[in-house]
Amino acid sequence: MFTGLVEAVGELVERKATSGGIRLRVASRLADEVSPGDSLAVNGVCLTVILAEKGELYADVGPETVRVTTLGTIAQGSSVNLERPLRADSRLGGHFVQGHVDAIGHIEDLRDEADFHWLTVGFPSRLAPFLVHKGSIAVDGISLTVAGLGVDRFDVQVVPYTMTHTNLARAELRDRVNLEVDVVGKYVVRAAELAGLTLTAVRPGEVTH
Asked: Helix and strand tally (H, E) in the chain?
């Protein structure tokens, strides 16, 4: 379990094909603070550290994770968000993030407002029932608040600290990002489905504030 508060930004040094999957080699200061077997969120994806030495850490990514996240196509030299799991005795900032990606989104717009930044992220419409205005969403493992919501896109406002201390500092239009919806929403929607309730949504493309 994670919080969506990024601890460090690492650099993808190598992405190497393995039998059915890939192995990531990431340079980060966290390499000295993790051990083989530890969980680590990499761009919002929960992975297991298999080796950590000399300022670098290694993690294997299975075929299913390659298919449903951006880790299979991320370029060498890319910045990646890193977070260790939440400790039971820690303060809980952000929100509960499992590291289980629900879909891949795309950055559709980047704009500034004074020192702050707005992102518009497009997502598969099947995720719409799980998103609520002012609710939480993890974007590449970053806990953010939905400030505007449509059936296939949402807006988030990013504070300067988050912008400069995550991979969003290098974000560009059309970048692919890992999305994880709030786990509470998943259970609510599932309960509604089992109860036979019909879920409604706003018109495609409409963003409500």
From this structure: 3, 12
CB 14 within 8 A of CB 25: yes
The CA distances from residue 175 to 12, 95, 140, 172, 201, in Å, are 16, 24, 11, 6, 26
Q: What is the pLDDT of residues 96-118, one digit of tens each?
A: 999 999 999 999 999 999 999 99
pTM of the model: 0.91
C-alpha–C-alpha distance, residues 13 and 24, integer Å: 8
Q: What domains can you pick out in the chain, each with its CATH number?
A: 8-83 (2.40.30.20), 103-194 (2.40.30.20)
CA distances from 60 to 4, 51, 72, 129, 140 (A): 21, 10, 11, 32, 18
